[in-house]
Every structure is written in C-alpha cells, then in structure tokens.
Amino acid sequence: MVSAYESGASLISIAREHLLGKETVRDTLADAGVRIRRQGLDDDQVTHAVRRYEEGFTNRDIARELGVGHSMVWRALKREGVKMRANSDSTSRHTRISRQT
Fold first, then answer.
1. 59 Cβ neighbours under 8 A, 6+ residues apart
2. Residues 6 or more apart in contact with residue 29 via CB below 8 angstroms
3. What span, in angstroms and rounded, lies between the C-alpha atoms of 34 and 94?
4. Which residue has the higher pLDDT, 101 or 90?
5. Quick one: pLDDT at residue 68?
6. Hey, is 33 helix, strand or coil?
7. What are the C-alpha distances in Å from 53 to residues 63, 83, 88?
8. What is the DSSP code (8-state) at residue 90?
9. How many C-alpha atoms does 88 have within 13 Å on its Cβ side?
C-alpha cells in the first residue's frame, strides 16, 4: 500500500484494491509514517467531472470513473460554479438508458 500511495495511487483506489475502507487505508499509511496528501482533483479531472456531470452522470458515477470519493467531485463541481441538480434529478446514466429502451 505504501509504495502504491507514494507512486500516486489514491486512498480510494488502494482501498478498493485491498477491499478495505478509505479510513483504514489512511490510518495504515499514517501509522507507517506516510504523509497523507491533501485530497483534491487536478485540472484535467475537474474538466472531466464538469463535462460528465453536464452529460447527466451523477457525482457517484464520476467519482467511480476517477477513483475518488463522491464528495470530492461535488466540491470540485461547486467550486467551478456548476449548477447542481436536485437529488430527484440525479439519475445514473444506466437508469436513463434503461428507461429509454
């Protein structure tokens, strides 16, 4: 886990790989003396997130694509001034596709 994280892997991606919670991975790395990076999306990821959200994908869909937490996507979209949909309007692409067929 340490080498993966130090090579740039996210806490979420490591947690998924090892079937652990993000907090467990963070605690394990911290116990090993690893400095935990400030969490955030880079410019390319923000651009991707905005585009996908405007295409109708949910925060959770986008977060899975990027290997990050959904709240990180939400914060990035808010910072970019994206008009957020009401929860009732936030349907996943899979739901929208199945309704059309």
1. 53, 70, 71, 73, 74, 77, 90
2. 1, 2, 5, 11, 36
3. 38
4. 90
5. 82
6. coil
7. 11, 10, 15
8. -
9. 0
Residues 13-64 have pLDDT tens digits of 899 899 999 889 999 999 999 999 877 788 899 999 999 999 999 999 999 8
Q: Model pTM?
A: 0.58
Q: For the chain, how many residues are written?
A: 101
Alpha helix positions (H), the chain: 2-6, 11-18, 22-31, 43-54, 59-66, 70-79, 93-100
Query: pLDDT tens, 53-97?
Result: 999 999 999 998 988 888 889 999 999 999 998 875 555 555 444
- CB of 33 closer than 8 Å to CB of 19: no
Phi-psi region of 81 (alpha: psi -120 to 50; beta: other; left: phi over 0): left
| Residue 97, both tokens | 């596709």
